[in-house]
Amino acid sequence: MNLKKELSVINAMEPIVIQLFEEQYLKERTLACGCDKCQLDILLLTLNQLPPRYTSSQAGEAYIKALYLNPQLQSDILKVLTQSVKVIEDNPSHP
Ligand SMILES: [Zn+2]
Question: What is the pTM of this model?
């Protein structure tokens, strides 16, 4: 199998988690520390706890949109995201 770049595999959870994180935390400016490092740590911690939802980059947009509009999935992600924010805020990887 010779996959072209435009047919690559993506994890649909990635854009969804980023979008929810932006809406729930970055817009409201509720983070104790909003530096790039803490933001990335929160995203990584969240994504590592959620099962990936793979799709092809070609079919991706519609698939991601449908997933994003799933209220059950949104609330599952927000639960993990809220925990991750707390973990990183309590233990930032910088002084
Ligand atoms: Zn920070």
Answer: 0.87
CA of 17 from ligand 1 middle (Å) equals 19
Domain boundaries, the chain: 34-95
The pLDDT of residue 5 is 60
C-alpha distance from residue 10 to each of 4, 60, 61, 68 (Å): 13, 8, 11, 15
Q: What whole-number distance in Å separates Cα of residue 50 and Cα of residue 66?
A: 17
3-state secondary structure of 47: helix
Task: Compute the distance from residue 43 Cα to the ligand 1 centre, in Å.
Answer: 13
Residue 94 has pLDDT above 70, yes or no: yes
